Amino acid sequence: MSARTYDFIVFGATSFVGKILSNYLVQNYEPGELNWAMAARPESKLNELKAELGEKGANIPTLIADAANAEQLTNMCVQAKVIVSTVGPYALYGEPLVKVCCDTGTDYCDLTGEAQWIADMLGKYESVAQESGARIVNSCGFDSIPSDLGVFFLQEHAKEKFDEYCFRVKLRVKAMKGGASGGTIASMLNIAKQAAKDPELRRQLVNPYVLCPDGHPFFARQANNNKAKFDEDFKRWTAPFVMEAINTRIVHRSNALRDAAYGKNFLYDEAMFAKGKAQQRECHLAWEALCWLQQLPLFAA
Ligand SMILES: NC(=O)c1ccc[n+]([C@@H]2O[C@H](COP(=O)([O-])OP(=O)(O)OC[C@H]3O[C@@H](n4cnc5c(N)ncnc54)[C@H](OP(=O)(O)O)[C@@H]3O)[C@@H](O)[C@H]2O)c1
User: Fold this and answer.
1) CATH number for the domain running over 6-137
2) For the chain, which has fewer Cβ within 10 Å, the N-terminal or C-terminal residue?
3) Neighbouring C-beta atoms of residue 156, cutoff 10 Å
4) Minimum-distance ligand 1 atom for the alpha carbon of 188
5) Closest CA to 102 of 79, 77, 85, 84
6) C-beta of 147 in contact with ligand 1 (< 6 A)
């Protein structure tokens, strides 16, 4: 590992998220402080990005790599200790890079919210990664860091204070800023499209333990927050939270990987507080619209 040129490479640096990340890095670290590079498919877009980043970005090295080109991916991976990938939807473009990282023992992280794709990659490459030593860490964005680490720190605090872990944790989102990026919407549409024609995938998507290793000890029935509900604990109405479908799976996987430290019957669910009657009605309408959209020929194809 020590012979690798870069500490990390941002793959997909020209994506919406890749640009935000690259800009953050050049604004917050002095030249030379971090040893990193930017990679993307078209050289022209990388040059545009460098121009946007200004003087501080001028000396950041760039590499050309297409997500479908194994040779370019290998050339990129062997130069870095870690690949940070923002090229999504991952179910469409992500597999070749995961494979090359596993084969070359390169650490990897991404921003995927696609549980079915993570399950697929675990099945195909987990043993290869264990062999090569590559650490593949999915869902390192808004989904699912606050949920996974939030539960972890809360449970550690509970253990310290009460000498036991909480058997149930609820995450309730009070407010959120910003909207879904183009890549996020593309990923959601891709999942809906795949699920419309694949019953096995639909079963996977509703399984809270889909990312837990085979033979996991969990059977507890988890709460289903897919419609507006009154939450007695908070005395407030709640609506479905869009990231619940990935976050809950990641939290249960973490519990499984820690030998069910939070308990075999650990319950975890997420929802959003609805602010008033009008918002509750909006939630209902949005949910009905989504169900209706899924009936359209686009998704049934
Ligand atoms: N967890 C979170 O908090 C969070 C937040 C936002 C986004 N995301 C996820 O992050 C991913 C990126 O989102 P985004 O909004 O930044 O997407 P985006 O702006 O649509 O960017 C997608 C990028 O993928 C690149 N790409 C597509 N095919 C490629 C290929 N064959 N080889 C190399 N690059 C290729 C595109 O490059 P070209 O310009 O060459 O087409 C583009 O730069 C999505 O999967 C999204 O779901 C997660």
Assistant:
1) 3.40.50.720
2) C
3) 12
4) 47
5) 77
6) no
Nearest-angstrom CA–CA distance, 249 and 258: 14
Mean pLDDT of the chain: 91
Tokens of 250: 């990641």
At 143-160, the pLDDT tens digits run: 899 999 999 999 999 999
Parts of the chain belonging to CATH 3.40.50.720: 6-137
The answer on pLDDT for 299 being more than 60 is: no
- The pLDDT of residue 31: 82
Using the mean position of ligand 1's atoms as its centre, give its distance from the Cα of residue 13 in Å: 9
Residue 245: both structure tokens together: 């479908």
CA of 33 to the centre of ligand 1 (A): 27
Contact 212, 168 (CB under 8 A): no
Model confidence, pTM = 0.90
Q: How far is the CA of 65 from the centre of ligand 1 (A)?
A: 14
Mutate to test the pocket of ligand 1, among 41, 69, 97, 149 (most ligand atoms within 8 A of CB): 41
Give the whole-angstrom CA distance, residue 45 versus residue 119: 32
Mean pLDDT of all residues in 205-211: 95
